[in-house]
Amino acid sequence: xxxxxxxxxxxxxxxxxxxxxxxxxxxxxxxxxxxxxxxxxxxxxxxxxxxxxxxxxxxxxxxxxxxxxxxxxxxxxxxxxxxxxxxxxxxxxxxxxxxxxxxxxxxxxxxxxxxxxxxxxxxxxxxxxxxxxxxxxxxxxxxxxxxxxxxxxxxxxxxxxxxxxxxxxxxxxxxxxxxxxxxxxxxxxxxxxxxxxxxxxxxxxxxxxxxxxxxxxxxxxxxxxxxxxxxxxxxxxxxxxxxxxxxxxxxxxxxxxxxxxxxxxxxxxxxx
Length: 272
Fold this sequence. Notes:
Number of helices: 7
Order of helices and strands: EHEHEEEEHEEHHEEEHEHE
CATH topology of the largest domain: Aminopeptidase
Low-confidence stretches: 267-272
Shape: globular
Number of domains: 2
CATH superfamily of the largest domain: Gcn5-related N-acetyltransferase (GNAT)
Distance between the termini: 24 Å
Number of strands: 13
Strand content: 25-35%
Oligomer: single chain
């Protein structure tokens, strides 16, 4: 793996992969790639079968790939714990084949997700009184703690320090507070020109089943206004799926597989 020093150095490698039949899970645009390069966290490896991009995180690496020649195996393993996710329509056999390719390279399946969509429109599922509010810079530690307590570092795609600060500044994190004023529930989402996506929803254990999650979703949907909303949830997470369905979401035919490669030197003591 080599660290990518500039987008100009990466661009020819990307252009090589743009051919019919390529299998890819990479949806990062130029701005996102440039951000990773600027932070010194993007690594690349070209091999006869395609191109792999690794985004370095504290827990390991997240991989994006362009698979052009599935008959050319990956060799040499990976230097750190590595996670790859492959969103796809259920009818997309090409990315299912890519999953088989990475399993042959040492990955194993650890999570299946479903995508749910809610079309634009009002939802009267929670009263505004005692509702959610925008989190502020003073909430950063409480928000980070809630996310880290409720999501795996491997599969939760938690926002890093800069991303979390950016989300707070952009008004993309809502919270509900306990009696002391501390954030005890959090919802993180992202805005796009055509839709919004709910990324993380977490409520402190002692406040669950008291309507906090519904208040967070109500506040989020009010902010989404006339935009469609999407969310990914674990296929085996019955309570989360039930909650989203009650809030007007429905499966839209997209699913995702998450695979994990464990660095044997770091395997002991780590949880998924």
